[in-house]
Amino acid sequence: MKKEITILHTLQQNWQPVQFIPGAYFVVINEDGNTGACTWLIKQDAGGVFPEHNHPNWTEMILLQGEMTGSEGTFKIGSYQSVAPNIKHGSYTIGKEGMIGLLISEGPIW
Length: 110
Prior knowledge:
With 110 residues, the chain is an all-beta fold.
């Protein structure tokens, strides 16, 4: 049973590498075992490139730290993006401070 209130010190968690994107890492904050809906923190090293990609479900992201630039424009702290299922987005070039974003998906990310 899920606790009614959960506190997780997210930046102190073990970041897992994103297997197909060098210099990118994620932390699972919350995940529904039935639907795959999830909330992740995702980060990328400075100067990295997040390649063009898509997700099978609606995803939302808010940039918490850094800056990234892609075909949709430049994302700065507080920028919000919503992407429909299977819509390609990116590639993104990460700024000189790297980036951390909060990613929310209605189902599995990949």
